[in-house]
Every structure is written in structure tokens, then in C-alpha cells.
Design a protein that fits this description.
The complex is a heterotrimer of chains A (338), B (340) and C (294).
Chain A lengths: L3 E14 L2 E14 L3 E5 L6 H9 L6 E10 L2 E2 L5 H7 L4 E4 L13 H11 L7 H14 L2 H11 L5 H5 L8 H13 L5 E5 L7 H18 L2 E6 L2 H7 L2 E6 L2 E7 H6 L4 H9 L36 H5 L5 E4 L2 E3 L7 E2 L1
Helix pairs in contact in A: 3-5, 7-8
Chain B lengths: L2 H28 L5 H6 L5 H11 L5 H13 L13 H36 L3 H16 L2 H15 L22 H7 L3 H38 L2 H8 L4 H38 L5 H11 L2 H29 L1 H6 L4
Helix pairs in contact in B: 1-13, 5-9, 5-11, 5-13, 6-9, 7-9, 7-11, 8-9, 9-11, 11-12, 11-13, 12-13
Chain C lengths: L2 H8 L3 H14 L1 H18 L1 H4 L33 H37 L1 H16 L2 H12 L3 H28 L2 H9 L3 H38 L10 H7 L9 H28 L5
Helix pairs in contact in C: 2-12, 3-5, 3-12, 5-6, 5-8, 5-10, 6-8, 7-8, 8-10, 9-10, 10-11, 10-12, 11-12
Classes of the chains: A alpha/beta (338), B mainly alpha (340), C mainly alpha (294).
Chain lengths: 338, 340, 294
Amino acid sequence: MSETILQVRDLHITFQLFEGLAKVIDGVTFELKKKEVIALVGETGCGKSLTAKSILGVLPPEAKISDGVINYKNQNLLKLDEKGWRRLRGKEIAMVPQNPMISLDPLLTIGDQLLDLINLQDQPDISLFSYYTRRSQITKERDTRAKAAKMLEDVALKPADRVMNSYPFQISGGMAQRVCIAMALSGNPSLLIADEPGTSLDVTSQKVILDLLNEKIRERGLSVIFITHNLGVARQIANRILIMYAGSVAEAWEADKIFREPLHPYSIGLKKAIPTLLLTKMIGIAGRVPSYIDPPTGCRFNTRCEYAMDMCRKVKPELVTVGDGHSVACYLYKGQRG
Amino acid sequence: MSLKAYVVKKGLYVALTLFFVIMIIFFLVRLVPGDIAYVALGQDASRAAIERFRSEMGLDRSLPEQFLILLSNLAHGKLGISGITSTDAMPAILYYLPATIELATLAMTVAIVLGILLGVTTGYTESRKIDNLVSFFAISGLSTPVFLTAIFLQVIVADLIPSFPLIGRIEPGFSIHRVTGLMLVDTLLAGNFGAFVSALKCLALPTFTLALGPTAAIMRLVRANTMREKRKSYITTFKANGLPNSLLRWRYLLPNAISPALTMAGLQFANALGGSFVIETIFGFPGIGWIGVEAMIDKDINIIQGVTLFAAIFFLISNFVVDFLHSYIDPRIRLKEKAD
Amino acid sequence: MDKKTRRRIAGGSLVDELRHSLYLFGRNKLALIGLVILIAMAIATIFAYQLAPYPSAATQTNFADRFRPPSSEHLMGTDEAGRDVLSRIIIGARVSLPYAFVIMLTSMAFGMPLGLIAGMFGGKLDNLIMRLADIWIAIPQIVFALAVAAFLGPSLINSVIAIASCFWPWHARFIRAEVLHIKEETYVEVAQSIGAGRLYVAVKEVLPNAIIPYIVKITTDLGYAILLLATLGFLGLGAQPPTPEWGTIAGQGRTFLPEIWWISLLPGIAIFLTVLAFNAVGDGLRNILGVEEM
């Protein structure tokens, strides 16, 4: 049985706004095992991206982690200083961003950016002066240019040299996404966070990218947090699916099983909303995502839930285990804590 | 297109613009209501003096003729007779030009370097206190009339450091052989370190005064850009994937933050030129601003024309440099132009 | 954070956004101070002769009292002709402020229509107007204004004409940029497809939307106009003595520096505060209205 590589317990993230304190992430708990792929699924604004960013420590300055624990290989990420982060980022944990075209520096060539990453990932913070004086030296010494070319070929970008000499605006979205994947993998991380990869691409390109990701994940035995709003995509790529709503986990289970028999009313609604071939009517979930400043008391889904009971409006349901590896946060179901 | 072709294209554009600028200046001068001669010589000048003036200045010819005379003069490197010097105006202006170039270049360099450094550092560390402080500095710098800073400095420094030079390019007692006209260069060429220091001292206050406004403007814009770029995906992604912080800030974020500010820097240079008129007058700094003001008070037409023309040339050159830097930093500009 | 994220998290309505804007403006201490100063200036302009301790200081000289340093009798001292400096500064507000508005209105009158036409009609006309503006801008504003003022002859009116004449390209460019931006919007396309003439569309649809960022620009420009006016006055090419324009007063006092500092320094500070106020308010407005920094 694999060990747990990442543990997130009762995470709370707030944004201080004029209108008030926005409690966006309201108690997220989950675990990631080695070589496991979990998917965080939810609609836009439910906080999945935020959760991922907090694991890497790249939250926007307005956000604050007000409570909770994030443990990576038994290291508390929330107590990490800059030096600690430098050891982790890129080499242990890495990120594939959502929109690749804006995730590359528009003023530098792909090669420059890739080389920077490869050359400097394992160096301590380098001063600008030494960077410019030693750059060509390092590149030659460690033959990083060849390494970079190989990394690009590894994500099916050929000819690697041409891509390396191009600027981001000269390559297509699909190519850029592959570059981002190559960059994320350049440090040989154990944990990969993929933030809606392929969302900004057309469906065909998206499939290609997902296949590529799948291949790399299996090849390297990566542990992955895959973020998406598409339940179907999640099912294809993940072992376990966590469905998030308005800042907390609603339900978590093995991918196939949760797809077949979702329990949480929100999950059921999500599944129903997936269009089928014989579509006669689009089915959505009534209502909108609530305000985070003045969220509904109790379960945040109670305003849209057809099964809402009194209890739902008073106290927020905890995530309880209702079966083997299956947990739900809903009063409709009785289960064990934890 | 290649960088060379780009430069040539822009160069032609500058030349063309210059031609029309000359035309505008020409018309400006001649749109004076009433007779220029009377304006220049005063209302109760003698008939003979007026006639002489008019024939000297070529005012008795038709307008198109006058324009052609101006152009041919310029082609020969002449501007026309100056009332102050009684010879052609060009040599006088060329004599005073290096001082202004020295002052303006120094001030703009300070403004750009300081503005960028301050802009990036304050933009990166976002704290409410620094926010307010920076805002205040920036707006104050833009709101201070140039003469106020100049006079204020003179008064304060005269009080605190009585021996500090408040006027001129170099302190009396130094005699430097003029080679380039740039005092800092000439003093070094003459090997006179004491003179060099003196020239530096004389440049200190005018440079500070001239650089104040542009520094504030540049800092403000660079800071806003930095804060905006900092949140963009490429910065967070590279940070997340392990790029060192210093590299992130100075090699990745900085060029992106500066790029939009370059155009503004060019405009600030234009303002600086105007500001040097006042500064040179107050600090007794003999540059074209100083002589320009003198000429304007005395209504010396050709010097005014010459000074205005040079100001425009300055501006066009600085814009040209800005465009060049822009296309150098941002590959999208020069590479996308291929499609044109 | 950007507006979209904020809106999504806060989930407010238009009214909330308005309150938020006012709150932002109020929280901006500098903008508030600026607003207070502007109101004070407005009062000074209107009630100048009532407020000034020596209302006759605008014209009447009193050579016995010349060069008195600031005291309880003359809070800002007297100038080279024995006139109370404080009174002259207060009365001077009647010169600088209204004439700055005149400068603004004049250059708007020229720049706005040109920019509108250039933006709406495009093509050769656009090119022509923009080339003209480019060439005009090549001559730095101060130099331009000085030259024109020199040739027209130094006076307050002439300096107003001079400054206004160098401002128009900026207005034209600005309006044109806004027009182009708004032209892309669908509702303009719709209006045009229904058959509305271009000029009609320009005035009815485009202009009202271009106004908001324009207001910010005008606020800052007013400050700059005052600076230019004062610069010309200082050099002797603007308002002529005894007109108590702030720059002119300071210029007159220049020969007596550094011992007699109050004649030159104090009007300068008045200018600084006024321009600061305009810039601060403009800045505050820009923050609320979410206009991009130029």
C-alpha cells in the first residue's frame, strides 16, 4: 500500500475585501497517496485553483491562510521559509498552468526560459551579476542545452531547436501547453499540480494534451492533483475524484464509482448536467454560487439543494466516511468521522 | 524585419516630421499680429531701422520665398541673423547646446534609473504604508513647479552650505579648454580633477531639480506595471516551478513592467527640455534654454526659431531611441512588423 | 486583485459597486485632502476680495512698507512694492484658476472634435489629423507655449492662447483612442447597421462613454495648465505685473533672493498645493473609475 505524500487538513483561506472578509476556502480536507492521481472537480469559483496554489505557496497577496495544515512528506508547508520553498518548488512539487499562452514570459525565447529553469532550479538564490556572468558557462558545463532539447522532444515537440529559438507568440496554444508541461517536469518532481490543462485549447488539442499528460504521469509514477471543471475529463485521468463546492469538498471517491453512483446532491446534479448523445433538454443546477462574504449558514449548498433540511441550514456537515474510500459531506448520509 | 531596416524606416520618418516641424515654426513666427519688425525692435523704432531689419530678415519677400530661404539657410547650417549677436544665430546656439545636452542627459539618466529601481522595488513589496508614501511622493514630484524646487534648493543650500555653487557650470577660478562643450568630459580631458568635481557640484542642483518630475512619473508607472505583472500567470508559474526570486524579478518581470513605461519616458524627456528653460535661467546655467529665454524676452526671431527647432530635434531623437529600445526589448514589435 | 475575481468573490450589485467606489475615494487620504484644497481654492477665487486682508494689494503700492518679512500684520510679508503677499496670492487665485479652465475649454474645443472625427471616420482623414498632431507634439509643450507667447507679446491673454494652442493634440489623441476602443463594442455596430449616420453614432453612443476617462484626464490637465501658466509668468512672458498671477509674483521676487525669499517661494507653494490637489483628486477618480494609468 502506498504512503501518503500530501495531507491537507481543514484548510481555510480568506480574502480581505472592502465589503468584508471573503471566506473562500472553508475547510478543505483530503489526502494524496504516492503515485495516485486525484482530481479536484468543481465549477468556476469553487476554490480548486486556490487550493492548488496554496500548496505551492503562490497565493495572491490579498489571500491569507487563516487555518489548517498542509503536510508534504511530513513537512508543514505553511511554516516554510523561502529557503524551504526553494528546495521544494520545481524539484518536489511543480505546476502545469491553466492558460499556457500567458504563462510564458512574452519577451524571452522558449529556450531561454527552459534553460533558466534547468540551470537554476537546484542553485541557491543567485544574484543577477553572477547569473549573467556564469550563464553560458553553466549551460556549456552541464550540457543543459541538449538536456532542454531532450525535454522538449519528450513532450513531442519536434524539432526541438526551432521551438527553443521561438518566442511564445510564435507557437500555438497546444505547443505552449506542452512547453509548460516540459517545464513542470524539468525538475523531476514527485507531486504535479495540473491546473485545468487544456481548458484554453480546442477539444482535439485538449485530448492530445491529456493523453500526453497521462503518459508522463504513468512513465514517471507521479502523484498528481488534477484540477478541472469537467467531470468526464476527471474520470479519464484520475484514480480518485474530489468534488468541490463553494470552498469545501462535497464528496470524494474512486473515479469510476463516483461517476456511476454519486451521493451528494451536488455531485448528482453535476452528473446529470453532462450532455449525452441523445440530448433533448439541458439540465443544470438551479441557483448560483453563493457570495463568500455572506455565505449561507450551514451547508453552503443548502440554497440550491432540493433535499435541504433544517439541519443543513444550521450547521455545516462534516466530511464523513460512508464506505471504502468514500466520503460525503451531507446530512442525508450517516457515516464515520475522518 | 531586421533591426537595420527598422532603424532606417524610423529615421526617414523622423526626417519627414522634422520638415513639417520647421514649417510649423515658420508659420508660428509669422503669425504674429502686426509687423514682426515692430515687435522685435519696439514700437518707436525708426523707419530706417525697421526697413533695415525687414530686409535683413528677408521679411520683404513673399511667404513661399521666405520659406525657401529658411530651408536653404538650414541646408547650409545657418539660421539667419540674430538680433543679439548680429551674426548668424546658429553658431551661438551650437555654442550653448552642449550644456543643455549634458544637463538633460544626466537628469534623464537619473530619472530613468531611479524611477525604475524605485518602481520595481516598491511595486514588489506591497504594504499599505509604502503605498501611501509612494503615491504621495509621485504626485508631489509631478505637481511641483520647476522654479519652486530650483529656488527652494538655492535658498536652503545657500543657508546650509554657504560655499556650494548655486550658479553656472563651473566655479570661478577654473578655466577649462573647451573640447566637446560637455564640462564633465572636458575637465577630465584636461586632467583637472578639481575642476571635474566643481563641474559636478554645479550640475548637482539643476540635475536634481530637472530629474524630480520625470522620476516621479516613471516610478509611478513602473510601480503600477510591476504590481500588475506580478499577478500574471507567467510569474506565478515560474515561481511555483522553482525559478529564483531575484531572477524572476529582474529578468522576467522588469522588462515586462518597463515596456509600456518607455513611451512615457520619452515624453518626460520633452517635458524635461521645457523645464530646462526655467532651470537654466534660475541657475545661470548657460545652455540653449537660457539663451532661448533671453531671446524670447528680446524677441530675437532667429534664435527663438533655432532653439525651438533644436528642442524638437531633441524630442524626436529621444522618441527614436525609445522606439529602438522598445523593439529591442519586445520581440513582438519587430517581428510582427514583418506582416505589414 | 483584478475586478473580475473581486466581483466573483464579493458577488455584489451595481449599487454596492458605487458605494465601494465612494469608499475607495474616501479611503484615499490624499484625494480627500486634494478635494478639500480644491474647495478652499474655489472659495478663495469667489470671495477673494472679502478674504484678502489687504484687498487693495492687487494694485495699490506702498513703498514705505516694502520687503517686510512675514509677521503678524503681513502673514506672508510684503513684496518689492510694499503690497501684502498673502492678499496677492489670494487674489491671484482669480487669475490662475479661471484661466486654467479657459485654457482647458479652448483646447478641448479644438482637440475633441478633431479626435472624434479622426476616430469615427478613420482612413485618410484620420491619418492626416494624427500626423498633424504628431508633428505638433514634436515641439515640447513649454517651448511651444513660450515661443508663441514671445511672438504674440507677453500678456495674460496671449499666454492663455499660447498654452491652449499646444494642448489640443493631446486631447485629440486621447479622444481618438477612446473612440477607437468603443467603436469595437457591439452596440456601436448595431447602431450603425440600423442606419444611423456616423456622426450621430459618434455623439450619441461613443461620446458619453468616452467622457469618464476623459474627466480624469481633464483634472490632471488642469493642474498642468496652471503650471504652464505660472512658468510663463515666472519668466516674464505671461501675465505682466501688476497682475497677481502666482508665477508672475514669484518671478518678480527672483532678483531679491535668497535673503528675501517670501515673494518667490510662497506663491510657488500655492501653485504646488493647487496642482497637487488636482492631481490627487484625479488620481482618486482614476482609482474609482478603474481607468488605466497613462
